[in-house]
Structures are given as structure tokens and as C-alpha cells.
Amino acid sequence: MPFALDLPVIFAFIIAFAIFAYVVMDGFDLGIGILFMAIPAGRERDSAMNSIAPVWDGNETWLVLGGGGLLAAFPLAYGMILSALYAPIIAMLLALVFRGVAFEFRWRDPAHRAFWDAAFSIGSVVATLAQGITLGGLLQGVAVANREYAGGWFDWLSPFSVLVGVSLVVGYALLGATWLIMKSEGTLQDRCYGLALRLGIAVIVAMAAVSAWTPYLREAYWLRWFAWPQVLFTAQVPLLVVITSAVFFFSLRRRHHYTPFLMTLGLFTLGLLGLGISLYPYVVPPSVSIWDAAAPNVSLKFMLPGVLVMVPIILAYTGYSYWVFRGKTGHEGYH
Q: DSSP character for 141?
């Protein structure tokens, strides 16, 4: 196959990587927001907030890259997805703005800190729920006719999309709890060990529920998971989930500091791999493939050098930020 014909696949993987990076990096700070009201006000809550203060806004770079990349590389899919999922996407963006304002104002307006703490938590929950509902609405399929969205305003809202939304809230909360295990000490760390145990069980149940439901959404999903011989490959995903979960719970029992977070990242990686297995090669299921939605190859060729330069730069400064602010965080923090 000529190189030019592979460009849509290359950009699809770049966008998938950006989404993965966003989920991993912004997931734990959204998770801290989800757990925020369960953490006592004062030193513990300040320590939790300070653990993400140096990196939280930079994490959303990947959301911009994913959304902007989708518009540039797959404009047809961008238009269809926004038309189908306009309400939850707008809710997500407004909630991210709301929590961003609350994050800054809680330090500068101590007289109303309780209000800003609640706003930070509510914004985090709404943003995460909207992300999950968006994913669920996309996975269940988008009605398309004549290369345009042909569904209704509330087609995204279904029991399955709500299940995915709630599952993502639980998953991000687990990321937040394990991040705090890694970054905190004392009573906050002890509290997060207990939270992580309960949330870990909830995440496994949620993953099992979503995984069991997904193949019944469309026959194509069923075939991708269970048709022979690819079932020999796809069966490894749930097996790896079981192994990763076992290591996760073992590390909690032994009170490891870093392993619970790494194993939670592993569960998210396997979940996104499962999503890729279900969706590929469609960017707007069930009818619009990567190649159908892609921009002209001449446009993709023009963009590719810039992407190949910028993505490593973003990775470099992101990695440097995490390296500089590595280690435990106290309540005095970086604000």
C-alpha cells in the first residue's frame, strides 16, 4: 500500500495517543476533584490540591491536541460527532472551565473556600460524567445519512451511555486515589488506601459490565471480539485485566506507594485497547471509517511534519514538569 494511503491510519493513531494521554494525565486530577469532598478540609485537602497544582492545566493540552487533530485530519467525523454529541461535549467544556476557576479562586478567596471546593468537585464530576456519556454515545453508534448526522438531539442519552459515564467517574476517582497514595503521606495516604480498595472493586465491576454489554450493541462488535481466529488475540485483554487487577490489590495490601497507580494506568490502557478493538476501523460507528472521514492526503502530508515535531516537544516539557515536581507533596505545596 502506498505511504499516502496509510496517512489516515497514522493520524488516527496520533489522535488515539492524544486521547490516551489526556485520559491518563487529566484523569487523576479530575479524580482528585471527584474525591475532593470526601477529603477533610484543611491540611489533607490542601495537600491533595497541591499534588496536582504544577501539572493540572498542562494535562489538558492533550484534549486540545485530540480535538484539534480530529478537526484537521478527520473534518467529516468532527462535524458528525459534534452534531451527535453536542450537549455532553458542551457540558464537559463548561465544567472544565468551572473547575478551573474554582481551582484558582480557592487560594485567593479563603473566605469562600468551602464554596470553591464544592465547585471544584462538582465541575470534576460533571466533566467526567460528560466524557463518559460522550464515549458511550459514540460507541453505541451515530445515525448518518448523506454524510451528515441524521439522529435526534438526545440520541446520545441511553442506559449504556450513562453506564459508561458512571464507570468513568469511578475510574477517574480510582486514578485520583492512587495518585494521592503516591504523592502524599500520613493520614491522607491512609485514607486513600481505603478509598482505593473500594474504588478498585467498583472499577472491576464497571469494566465487566461495560465489556459484557458492548458486544450486544452491534453484531460487528461481537464479531471483532469472538470471531475465529481473532478471539485468540482479544481473549488476552480480559486475561491481562485479571492479572493487572490481582497485582493492584496485592500492592494495596502491601501498601506500596507507586504500584497501585501504575496498575490503575494499566487497567485504563487495557480499557482503551478494548475500545480500539471494538471501533477499528470506524471513527464514527457504524458506517464512517477512518478513510471515509479523512482529509485529503495532500492536507495530511502537509500537517504530518508539524505533528511529528510538536508531539515530542509536548512530551518533553510534560515529562520535565513531572520530573521537577516529583516526590511527596505537603500541604504548603506550590500555590
A: -
What is the model's pLDDT at position 330?
A: 58
Q: CA-CA distances (angstroms) from residue 228 to 81, 144, 184, 216?
A: 32, 30, 47, 17
In a domain, 298, yes or no: yes
Distance CA 47, CA 298 (A): 50
pLDDT confidence of residue 335: 42
CA–CA separation, 280 and 59 (whole Å): 26
CB 112 within 8 A of CB 95: no
Tell how strand 282-284 and strand 148-149 pair up: unpaired
Predicted pLDDT of residue 332: 53
Pairing of the two strands 282-284 and 144-145:
unpaired
Q: Which domain holds residue 26?
A: 8-216+283-324
Q: pLDDT band at residue 88, thresholds of 50, 70 and 90?
A: very high
Sign of CA dihedral 160, 166, 170, 173: positive
Residue 54, all three cell numbers: 504544577
Lowest-pLDDT choice from 54-68, 232-246, 295-309: 54-68
Mean pLDDT value of segment 260-269: 94
Q: Tell whether 268 is covered by a domain.
A: no
Q: Convert the pLDDT of each residue in 93-120 to its tens digit.
A: 999 998 888 888 888 888 888 899 999 9
Query: Does a cis peptide bond (omega within 30 degrees of 0) precede residue 296?
Result: no
CA distance 40 to 265: 26
Separation of alpha carbons 10 and 160, rounded Å:
30
- Strand-pairing partners, residue 144, are 149
Q: How many residues does the chain have?
A: 335
- The pTM score is 0.91
* Domain presence at residue 267: no
Pairing of β 148-149 and β 144-145: antiparallel
The number of domains in the chain is 1
CA angle (90 as vertex; 85, 91 as ends), nearest 5: 105
Question: Does any domain span residue 146?
Answer: yes
